[in-house]
Design brief:
The protein is an alpha/beta fold. It contains 16 helices and eleven strands.
């Protein structure tokens, strides 16, 4: 057993286990944690005795609450480029996970937010409990959903747009309904499932899924499923103004309360973050995962200079006055984005053409 970089790594049976262990920060991913996950995967890749990987958490409250946004803020304020290095390193980790030759299982028990959501999506088999809450809440701090959300949320059409713009949390039942996770089982049965995986003589994908299937239960009904028609109605529009106008003019009494709440949430989010997040979801529908990730990386490297991230973190994390002064417009940045979107739109067309051909 080793415990480095807020990671506890063990080998039990044919299972290599990486446990996130930064519990005082709800396992927010520090740079050493990200580097450690990548390094451990590389160390285990050629060891035949390790047949599969399990990533879990030692926190009773969270799998992972996201990226280390305070580190990113401090780096930018210090005038260095470590925040850009953080993103680059994080995306190497995500790609390493996705491309790993052995099955990678993840246990999700508690908050799965932002970078933690992206980490979970990069794993091959996702197992969640009733305690889990999922969200990509980046617009609340003046950012946009990244870590692959341009791909995995955009596949959800209007529901993906809703989740990207509002940052609303959803339940494990919702995540299962949206196919963002594979299996649901009671939180208290995770140790028993882990023991079964450790005891297994074979841990190929078929055997792993067979073992997990012996523990699964049916969750409560998805609340998001009951809201799906409302979400489709209001979030199918191409422009942010149209979405907000649709919510504001909702006349159906059954939908009124939800529409008002959703509109109020959107009004609290900064304009540039909302517009960019909407555009990413629209463009991402026709891009490969690799192209979506590259688009996100292009934006990350210019966002801190032009977007509202620094002000959002200041108001909500640093000074905690909860009174961010969002930009109402940024002509220079909007011109930069206008130049960027056609490039990616052209690539999306090429992608569709190549897929058909």
């Amino acid at each position: 057993m080793s415990n480095e970089n807020n990671l506890i790594t063990t080998v039990q049976g044919g299972l290599g286990i990486i446990s996130l262990d930064r519990t005082t920060h709800l396992n927010a991913l520090s740079l050493p944690m990200i580097q450690g996950i990548t390094a451990q995967l590389e160390n285990w890749s050629d060891l035949p005795e390790i047949q599969a990987i399990l990533i879990n958490s030692n926190s009773p409250k969270a799998f992972c609450a996201g990226g280390d946004i305070r580190y990113l803020y401090d780096s930018y304020k210090a005038g260095n480029t470590q925040y850009q290095d953080y993103f680059a390193t994080e995306y190497v980790m995500l790609n390493t996970l996705r491309q790993f030759a052995k099955p990678v299982i993840v246990f999700l028990d508690g908050y799965v937010l932002g970078g933690g959501f992206g980490l979970a999506q990069a794993c091959h088999i996702q197992v969640t409990s009733e305690k889990s809450r999922f969200a990509m809440p980046e617009t609340a701090i003046g950012f946009f959903p990244d870590v692959g959300a341009t791909h995995f949320l955009s596949r959800l059409d209007e529901i993906g747009v809703y989740l990207a713009l509002t940052g609303e949390q959803i339940s494990s039942s919702d995540a299962l309904y949206l196919d963002l996770v594979d299996y649901h089982l009671p939180s208290e049965r995770f140790p028993e499932l882990q023991a079964a995986l450790i005891a297994a003589s074979s841990l190929n994908p078929t055997e792993i899924r067979k073992i997990i299937s012996g523990f699964i239960t049916t969750p409560v009904e998805s609340e998001l499923k009951t809201l799906a028609d409302h979400i489709h109605k209001h979030f199918a529009y191409q422009n942010l103004d149209e979405i907000e106008r649709s919510l504001a003019h909702e006349t159906d009494a059954k939908d009124q309360s939800w529409a008002d709440k959703t509109l109020n949430t959107l009004k609290q989010r900064p304009l540039i973050a909302k517009q960019t997040s909407l555009k990413l979801q629209q463009i991402g529908q026709n891009l490969s995962l690799e192209k979506c990730m590259q688009l996100e990386r292009d934006l990350q490297d210019i966002w801190f200079e032009q977007g509202d991230f620094i002000e959002g973190v200041r108001a909500l994390i640093v000074d905690k006055d909860k009174n961010p002064q969002w930009q109402t417009e940024n002509s220079k940045f909007e011109k930069t984005l206008e130049k960027l979107w056609p490039v990616w739109s052209k690539q999306s067309i090429e992608h569709m053409y190549n897929t058909v051909v």
